[in-house]
Write a structure and sequence with these properties.
The protein is α+β, with helices and mostly antiparallel strands and about 400 residues long. It is built from four helices and 21 strands. It is rod-shaped and about 170 Å long. The longest helix is centred in the first third of the chain and has 32 residues.
Length: about 400
């Protein structure tokens, strides 16, 4: 009885083993017959060494070398406006003339009184020589002359204030003042700005201050003029660090002979620091950033050759324009160490060598060993100085 049970148990185990082996062979057959993934179409470029000038970048604001809203110090009725909106004027040019008739008449009256007091002083000095008047009388006459002359000067200054002049050379803005209009003290007449040259004020972190000095080259761009660059130099570094932001304020002077840059514009300022350096660069689209490190896919020779669109259209379809049909390349993922960026480019400090072909788009469908076909009919941006698409 016991022997029969052992024979039955052995038979069950043998049957189980046979079924398991048959199932294993079936799985292997399915795996062998499963369709192999076709080559993936990607774009690629070769890593190249470029010479970069180290720069510090910041957003700044354009300010005039001199700028003021011209106003009147005293009230008066506008007699004439002697300029046009947007006009260039020299320092001292008459801008507005206020009505000063009554003030001029008062000045003439004071001048007459001053001349009379001077005559009285001259006569009393002659009489003093003949001992006809006292010294005290002559002293009073001298004081009276000084007082009258002071009144004349005061009135002359008042009359001069009725003529409003440009305090410095520059360009005038738009005015709404018209002849016959009454102005109160402090009323704005027109803005006056000196804009050639022009200042750009910007801030940089305090950790960069060691590399900054007066005279360093500054390049300025604005969205108003696309990629056009305006060159200048740092003329002042603020001696105090902002306690809130820990930034230092800098001022640079920019030549502006065409009057293209205007006060109030914001600008991108970049300061050249140190000597030029050579970096191995790639388009930023080639880098895949992960929590465990940055990676790229490097193309290596080897693998099945295929038409450019074999992955999606089948081997019978013609290759896409710009594709490398039958390239027989595979993708290999490698870790890289990235450095500073410049426009669309990024510096690669470690991980690849110059001349290696690197995938720039299509990385999401790749893994190690995936066969690829290179199609560079459309390439991602790779400019050190990109411009906005709308330009």
């Amino acid at each position: 009885m016991k022997k029969r049970m052992l024979i039955m148990l052995g038979g069950v185990l043998l049957l189980t083993a046979v079924l398991a082996f048959g199932f294993y062979l079936h799985i292997q057959t399915l795996i062998a017959s499963a369709p192999k993934p076709g080559p993936q179409t990607v774009s690629a470029t070769r890593a190249q060494t470029l010479e970069w000038q180290p720069q510090l970048a910041a957003i700044g604001t354009l300010n005039p070398v001199r700028g003021v809203d011209v106003t009147t110090e005293i009230a008066g009725l506008v007699r004439s406006v002697n300029f046009k909106s947007g006009q260039e004027v020299r320092a001292g040019a008459v801008l507005v003339q206020l009505n000063a008739d009554s003030d001029v008449a008062q000045l003439h009256s004071l001048q007459a009184a001053s001349e009379l007091s001077a005559t009285v002083l001259k006569r009393d000095r002659a009489q003093l020589a003949a001992q006809a008047v006292s010294q005290a009388q002559v002293d009073n006459d001298e004081a009276d002359v000084k007082s009258k002359r002071a009144l004349v000067e005061q009135q002359a200054a008042l009359v001069a204030k009725k003529t409003i002049r440009a305090p410095f050379s520059g360009r005038l803005g738009i005015t709404t003042v018209n002849p016959g209009q009454y102005l109160n003290p402090g009323d704005k007449i027109v803005t006056l700005q000196t804009i050639d040259p022009i200042y750009v004020d910007f801030s940089l972190p305090q950790k960069q201050i060691a590399g900054l000095s007066v005279g360093q080259v500054v390049n300025v761009t604005t969205d108003a003029y696309g990629s056009q660059t305006f060159a200048g130099k740092i003329n002042a570094i603020n001696p105090k660090i902002d306690a809130t932001t820990r930034n230092v304020l800098l001022e640079a002077t920019i030549a502006n002979p065409q009057r293209q840059l205007l006060p109030g514009m914001y600008a991108h300022a970049s300061v050249d620091v140190g000597d030029k350096r050579k970096y191995l660069t790639l388009p930023q689209t080639a880098i895949t950033y992960n929590p465990y490190g940055s990676t790229v896919f490097v193309l290596k020779e080897g693998g099945a050759a295929a038409p450019a669109n074999a992955a999606s259209q089948g081997a019978s379809q013609p290759p896409a324009p710009g594709a490398s049909a039958g390239s027989g390349k595979t993708a290999q993922q490698v870790f890289v160490t990235t450095g500073e960026t410049r426009g669309d480019q990024v510096a690669i400090l470690k991980g690849i060598e110059a001349g290696q072909e690197v995938v720039t788009s299509g990385q999401l469908k790749l893994k190690n060993g995936t066969p690829v076909v290179v199609d560079n009919s459309v390439q991602p941006a790779n400019s050190a100085n990109p411009t906005p698409q709308e330009h």
